[in-house]
Amino acid sequence: MKLILALSLFLGYVTCQHIHGHELKVLAQNEFNGYDHNHNGVLEMAEFEASVQGTDTNGDGHVTCAEYAAASSQPHALALEIFHHYDQDVDCIMSHADAVATLHQIDSNGGGTVNEHEFEHYYTQIMKHLGHIPHGHNGR
Ligand SMILES: [Ca+2]
Ligand SMILES: [Ca+2]
Ligand SMILES: [Ca+2]
């Protein structure tokens, strides 16, 4: 539920307006804190996967894009955009492999875990890609 809450907050922002530097930082921190269950400032594979699996509403062990979008109270299309960034093989299912690949993608220094700085960087890239950061403004 923490993931859904963080995502809802985040999606609420991006549907209304462009994101500016300090807002992006706050949103990234909220999202990160939602994943970091033991609050040690480091995101591990188990924590990330547990958060993602929390949106498996029918309990079949797979989180589909439809489940993910439905779990969000925000616009369907935007929730799907976010999901597709995590869904590495684009089959509309968040598998263990997808979660591992995504975490490794965020883990830019290759330490096997993700710190807040790495997460914020990844977040900024997604927002740029989705066009929610004004041109020429990278939030820093
Ligand atoms: Ca942690
Ligand atoms: Ca499911
Ligand atoms: Ca997939």
From TrEMBL:
Source superkingdom: Eukaryota
InterPro entries, per the entry: EF-hand-dom_pair, EF_Hand_1_Ca_BS
Signal peptide: 1-16
Alphabetically ordered keywords of this record: Calcium, Signal
Protein name, per record: EF-hand domain-containing protein
The organism's taxonomic lineage, starting at the top: Eukaryota, Metazoa, Spiralia, Lophotrochozoa, Mollusca
